[in-house]
Design brief:
221 residues; alpha+beta; NADH Oxidase; binds flavin mononucleotide
Length: 221
């Protein structure tokens, strides 16, 4: 069996993949594990479309054609969160050898999102559009379980909000029904060990920044 803590600690986003296909047996194992994720009223709201081979190549070509013809910015972050994206960019692009002021280099690196970073398989994660935020939490629990199940089997991943920048292209190419909303993408495959940016330990905040443990109630409160 796998050591849970070791799997959680070893996972990091992969942004260059080898073309080696994912053994179907390992994929099915990870997908079956992810089905065990909890969800509101056990709705199991996740809908995952996986594309490989010709279907994935066709999606990549369609996305790249759209990126060239009609380039769009990533969805902006609220002002108070923008520094996170800047800091992450410095770390990830830095590891790729692209400097802070190299606009063209950054744009090229960012475009690799739409080529799924060379992954042999891409997933598109959806849920029914009538469901709400609480159900998106369930989809998130599914996604993390899947990602960790893949990590345990030596398979790298990158969750990608960038793929939602061209939802109509993805919907058309993968015949995703209108009643589903596209939440994010997931590139998956064996990470290229020779790519320095595949070994980043992106810094995480201390627990206190995200968690408040509330106990004694003060006289004034
Ligand atoms: C919902 C979500 C969307 C993300 N979107 C992208 C993306 O579009 N492109 C990308 O390169 N990384 C994307 N990431 C990966 C994050 O940048 C990454 O998880 C974060 O920087 C922490 O690094 P780590 O995964 O290596 O711990 C996304 C991650 C999540 C969970």
């Amino acid at each position: 069996m796998f050591d849970f803590e070791e799997i959680v600690r070893s996972r990091c986003s992969s942004r260059r993949f080898l073309p080696t296909p994912i053994p179907r047996e390992l994929l099915v194992e990870a997908l079956s594990l992810a089905q065990l994720a909890p969800s509101n009223s056990n709705i199991q709201p996740w809908r995952l479309f996986l594309a490989e081979g010709e279907r994935k190549d066709r999606l990549r070509e369609a996305l790249m054609a759209e990126v060239r013809a009609n380039p769009r910015e990533l969805a902006p972050l609220p002002a108070s969160f923008r520094s996170y994206r800047r800091e992450l960019g410095a770390i990830v692009y830095g590891a790729m050898g692209v400097s802070r002021d190299d606009e063209a280099g950054r744009a090229l690196a960012s475009r690799r999102n739409y080529e799924f970073f060379g992954a042999p398989m891409v997933g598109i994660l959806c849920m029914h559009r009538e469901l709400g935020l609480v159900d998106a939490v369930g989809v998130g629990m599914y996604l993390q379980t899947l990602v960790l199940g893949l990590t345990a089997r030596g398979i790298g991943t990158c969750v990608q909000a960038a793929l939602t920048t061209y939802p109509e292209v993805i919907r058309r190419e993968l015949a995703i029904p209108e009643e589903l909303v596209i939440l994010c993408g997931l590139s998956l495959g064996y990470a290229d060990p020779d790519f320095p940016a595949n070994h980043l330990k992106v810094p995480k905040q201390p627990v206190e920044k995200n968690v408040s443990i509330l106990g004694q109630v003060s006289q004034s409160g």
